[in-house]
Task: structure prediction
Amino acid sequence: MTAFDFPLAQTDIGDAERDAVMSVLDRGWISSGPEIGAFEEAFAAFCDARHAVMVNSGTSALTVGLLALGIGPGDEVILPSLTFSATLNGVLATGACAVLVDVDEQGLICFESVQAALSPATAAVVPVDLYGQCVDLPRLRQCIGSEIAIVEDAAEALGAEAETFAASGVYQAGHISGHGEASIFGFYPNKVLTTGEGGMLVTNDSQVAARVRARINQSRRNDSDADVTLEIGELPGFSMRGNELAAAMGRVQLTTLGQRLLQRRALAGDYLLRLAAVLPAGQRPFINNVNATSWFTMPILWSDKLERDHLWQALKYRGVASARYFAALHREPAVLALPRDKIRTLDCSRSAHIADHILCLPFWPGLGDQLPELMDRLSHAIHALGSAPEESA
Ligand SMILES: Cc1ncc(COP(=O)(O)O)c(C=O)c1O
Result:
């Protein structure tokens, strides 16, 4: 494994998180317990939602969320081709057919493409808040009507906002009230809020919340530790619960989320200014909306695919990690090999274009002081593009 001077991300964990985790360890109750309840309550309040259910990952949240909405074999679920494979995995795990549609210029699900994909079998749409941006959910709801479920994949986007054209104002990721059935979040270490691994589902529907709670706990109807009856609900059930250590971390991080977002936005503003001085004509940052984004990476769009790949290598040679994500799912061999009743694909040429030209640069809250050095290395890597690719150290 290459050790990078500039990894893609670094965690932002302080004494408060350490103290919270140590308290849980001292109490000795580390599986399901009061920390989870408190974290869920605070998270639901943050999203103005009636329920939040903590799970062991964002992918789990998506899978059980869709299952709780009754989605399964014979149903179609629409999602963008440009997303992390987790979105597709969550859909496929339900047994539904995944329908891949294109994205818009921002890399967010294209509403025209969604409309073209609708069929009598469409049961849900999973818009993805990609790269910490936010989909205009009220507008999506207007486009597809009220009969089809919306499960927002906000795994990357806690605190992100979108200007909404359906109603004047702003839509904030996870604030689904009246717009969607559920939103899911992921707490992997590159995110604005991390619990190591972990995820959350928010919903206003008590039945959905109850079904999710049962599914993540072996489908047990009675989740009281004192009474381990084998009263089983909908099968299959899973072991996807959160845990007290993760919840304690998440709860502390949520109290400082506003501050974290501001800090990241200040960094993004500085980063964008510096990029403007370093990037050659024709190359550009992919996201410019500093204050609406939940920054966890700094994607740039490079006009030539081969040069983009060469830049990725040249940065690696200089100790800088970057990532060519995300792949356009509709071109992935494993996706192409899926049976016909599990995958349907519309024209996804914009997804393919972005996938071929995007490069995500390092981003983490403490990067500020090192930005000049990072820009220096980026500048050298760009100058090396005319010569033969260097071998990685
Ligand atoms: C768009 C998207 N959806 C879903 C997930 C799944 O989250 P997890 O890794 O917690 O399963 C991720 C992961 O970060 C993601 O980027």
